[in-house]
Amino acid sequence: MKRVTITTVAKELGLSVCTVNKAMYGKPRISEATRQRVLEAAERLGYRPNRLARALSRNPFSVGVVYPDAWPSHYGLLVQGVHRGFDDLRDHHVTAVYEPCPSFDDGRVFAREVNAALRRSPSGLILAFGYARPDDYRRIAATVADEKVPCVLLGGDVPGMPRLSVVWHDTRRCGAMAAEVLSWLAPGEPVALLVGRLGSPDHDNKIEGFRAEAARAGLPVAAVVETFDDPDAGVPATQRLLAEHPEVKGIYVSSENGAGTGRFLRDCGLVGKVKVVATGIAPEIRAFVSTGVFQCSVYQNQHLQGRRAVQALYAYLESGMQPEPEILVPPVLMQRANLDLFADLVGA
């Protein structure tokens, strides 16, 4: 059987190959009626686009990836997902240039790395932010807007930052899942949250999701305590929480630094007396789940976040396909029964 090509479709409709190509790939200045005619004809004739040939025939894309070189159990997993996403595109003339930022919470340093990426004239950007002052966020936003480079935010939202999309974990679902688990483990008992930083979209959304599910399940929320994403703050924060609220029987640690909470409960003989839903799959978190110090941990699926960010940006660059403004990746519960599934992940 003779192979159906884009030329076959064009001849069938009496249109130019250029017009058919534009209709096929969502290009502008093509009426919806023409686009529909082309798509219906392509389906009827059995046309299948040769995406590899199309990729090889066009100019290459380059993508700058800027991220904090910190928190392997979070940013390391995000970047590994990005690597995997670009590996999926290895035959499509797409290259990535990585700009690791040596600071997690200095917006000026992050801005410097963004500027370094922009000097390479990338086709697009993937930005995974740490913490920064509002003024630093505004300066970075102005720079990205001035350069008019398509940008996807990864792993967290920054309100006001120019972007095609933000790809991150479903934060409200994370909080709701944690509250539901605690309602099984400590039904009707007071619970509390240890969060990174109040005022960040990540943790504020988790608190919102947690409170909503806790209210539905009849769990009183006794306290919300900040740890400022400081690994050394876990022990004193847990100690202070339980000293001020000895009635608490369940804790949700919403950031990746829950190891301090586990150490405190273990050293004080409180294992099993206070139930814990942690966050992440770092080695010490996995060990605490394995030994029953933590009942489970919420894996925020950073690998999939990274791949989805690459897919969204590439689809836009390749065909002009506008991604959803927010792409939410569902979290997964890590429990003793499925620990082996996380053994090969970075940070595990």
Explain what you see.
With 348 residues, the protein is an alpha/beta fold. The chain has 3 domains: 6-49, 434 Repressor (Amino-terminal Domain) (Orthogonal Bundle), CATH 1.10.260.40; 57-168 and 302-329, Rossmann fold (3-Layer(aba) Sandwich), CATH 3.40.50.2300; 171-299, Rossmann fold. The protein is 46% helix and 17% strand. The chain is built from 13 helices and 12 strands. The strands form 2 sheets. A 6-stranded parallel β-sheet has the order 2-1-3-4-5-11, with helices on both faces. It has a 6-stranded mixed β-sheet with strand order 7-6-8-9-10-12, with helices on both faces. Helix 8 (171-185) packs parallel to helix 9. It is elongated. The model has no long low-confidence stretch (mean pLDDT 92).
The CATH architecture name of the largest domain reads: 3-Layer(aba) Sandwich
Q: Strands across the major sheet, in which order?
A: 2-1-3-4-5-11
- List the secondary-structure elements in sequence, H or E: HHHHEHEHEHEEHEHEHEHEHEHEE
Cα-atom radius of gyration: 24 Å
Mean pLDDT: 92
Q: Count up the domains.
A: 3
- Within CATH, the superfamily of the largest domain carries the name Response regulator
- Helix run count: 13
**Straight-line N-to-C gap:** 52 Å
Q: What fraction strand?
A: 15-25%
Global shape: elongated
Q: What is the class of the largest domain in the CATH system?
A: Alpha Beta
Main pleated sheet: 6 strands, parallel
Number of strands: 12
Judged by helices, strands and strand pairing, the structural class is alpha/beta
| Share of helical residues | 40-55%
Contiguous uncertain segments of 5+ residues: none
CATH names the topology of the largest domain as Rossmann fold
